[in-house]
Write a structure and sequence with these properties.
By secondary structure, the protein is α+β, with helices and mostly antiparallel strands. 35% of the residues lie in helices and 31% in strands. It has three domains: 1-54, no CATH class; 56-103, no CATH class; 104-169, 2-Layer Sandwich (Rec A Protein, domain 2). It has helices spanning 2-19, 49-53, 105-115, 137-146, 148-162; strands at 31-32, 42-43, 56-68, 71-84, 92-98, 102-103, 120-122, 125-128, 131-135.
Length: 169
């Protein structure tokens, strides 16, 4: 009975959201199915309707913590696109979510730039050309916060290497 109510409500909601050009975000939790021998024992409560009506489903998991000194300042998160009717599914991303701030743009810039070899990581040290950004990601982040023109230059170089338009245009 509850599943039928959910299905009816979602059918109405989806139509209204489409007319209003609005996104609806549902946040759910995982439960363990008891006695599952094969396949994934994880399930989401609320029946199948939510999975069916969703245009996009993301699996967000904490994979580590972000520390500044000895203090925990956020979480390292992995997001998997489980379902996507709007773009190719099964993509993955990892990024830092800082408490009181949200997704850390500079941390993401450092990760992507070092992955694309725009900035060099030698041991724990990050450098951009002849400029030493700092020892460890937190120090590099602080350097880029204090020098936004260098951060912008790195971002433009990353966009160029990745084949994207620069943020200036």
């Amino acid at each position: 009975k509850q599943a039928r109510l959910m299905s009816q409500a979602l059918r109405k909601l989806k139509g209204l959201a489409h007319k209003a050009n609005t996104a609806i975000i549902f946040i759910n939790q995982l439960r363990e199915k008891i006695g599952v021998m094969f396949g994934n024992p994880e399930t989401t409560p609320g029946g199948r309707a939510l999975k069916f009506f969703a245009d996009m489903r993301l699996d967000v998991r904490r994979i580590g913590e972000v520390k500044d000194g000895g203090e925990k300042t956020g979480n390292r998160v992995r997001v998997k696109v489980v379902k996507n009717k709007l773009a190719p599914p099964f993509q993955e991303a990892e990024f830092d979510v800082l408490y009181g701030e949200g997704i850390c743009k500079l941390c993401d810039l450092i990760d992507v730039a070092s992955e694309l070899k725009v900035i060099n990581k030698s041991g724990a040290w990050y450098s951009y050309g002849d400029i030493r950004l700092g020892q460890g990601k937190e120090q590099a982040k602080k350097f880029l916060m204090e020098n936004p023109e260098i951060a912008q230059e790195i971002e433009n170089k990353v966009r160029e290497v990745a084949g994207l338009a620069s943020a200036d245009t």
